[in-house]
Amino acid sequence: MKKSSKIILTAILLLAAVFFSLGIFVPSLNFENRITVNKPVAQSFKIFNSPFALSEWIPGLKNVKWISGRQNEAGSKWEMIIEQDGNTYVMREELVTFKENEVFAVKMENDEMTNVMEVRFTDKGTVTEITSTNHVIGKNIFQKSLLVLSKSIFIKREKKMYEQLKKIIESSN
C-alpha cells in the first residue's frame, strides 16, 4: 500500500512539475488572425471602431464602461464586462495606438492576464485585410502555464469573433 501511494504521489508531483514548467519555458502567448472583408477600409474600420456595434461581434459582451480620456485618443481607458462559459470577466483596457483606417492597438488587463492587441487595416482597393496580433502574458506561473494549454481556445474564439465582424461589415451599406 505504501509503495503504490509513493508512485501516485510521484506521478502527481511530476505532472505538476511539467505543468508549471510550461509557464517557465513559454511565459507568453503570441498569435495572429487575418481576415479579408469585401468592403473598403473606411467602412470596415468605422464598424470595427463603433461602440454601438461591439456587442454584435464580441461574444458575451455585457457592458462597456468609459473610465477616462476621449474616444480614439491614446491613453483613454474603459472596462469591458464579458461573460463566457458561465464566468464573468472584467477587462480593463487602455488605447495604446489609434490611426484612423489603419491601426487600433489596446492593452487589456484583468486579474489573470495582460493582452496587448494590435489590429491593422490594410486597404486592398475594394476589400480590406484585417490583421489582429496578440501578445498575452499570464499574471502568475499558473496562468502562464494555463495559457500554453489554452492557445487553441484563444485562436478559435478570436477567429469566430472576427468572422462575425466580417459578416457585420459585409452586410452593412
Write a structural description.
The chain has 173 residues and is an alpha+beta fold. It has one domain: Alpha-D-Glucose-1,6-Bisphosphate, Chain A, domain 4 (2-Layer Sandwich), CATH 3.30.530. Helix content is 39%, strand content 40%. It contains four helices and seven strands. The chain has a seven-stranded antiparallel beta sheet with strand order 1-7-6-5-4-3-2, with helices on one face. The longest helix has 30 residues, at 141-170.
What's the multimeric state?
single chain
What does the largest sheet look like? 7 strands, antiparallel
Number of E-state strands: 7
H/E series, N to C?
Answer: HEHHEEEEEEH
Helix/strand class: alpha+beta
Note the main attributes of this structure:
173 residues, alpha+beta, Alpha-D-Glucose-1,6-Bisphosphate, Chain A, domain 4, 7-stranded antiparallel sheet, 39% helix, 40% strand
Brief synopsis:
39% of the residues lie in helices and 40% in strands.
Topology at a glance:
Blueprint: H1 2-25, E1 28-37, H2 41-49, H3 54-57, E2 61-68, E3 77-84, E4 87-99, E5 103-109, E6 113-124, E7 127-138, H4 141-170
Antiparallel strand pairs: 1-7, 2-3, 3-4, 4-5, 5-6, 6-7
Helix pairs in contact: 1-4, 2-4
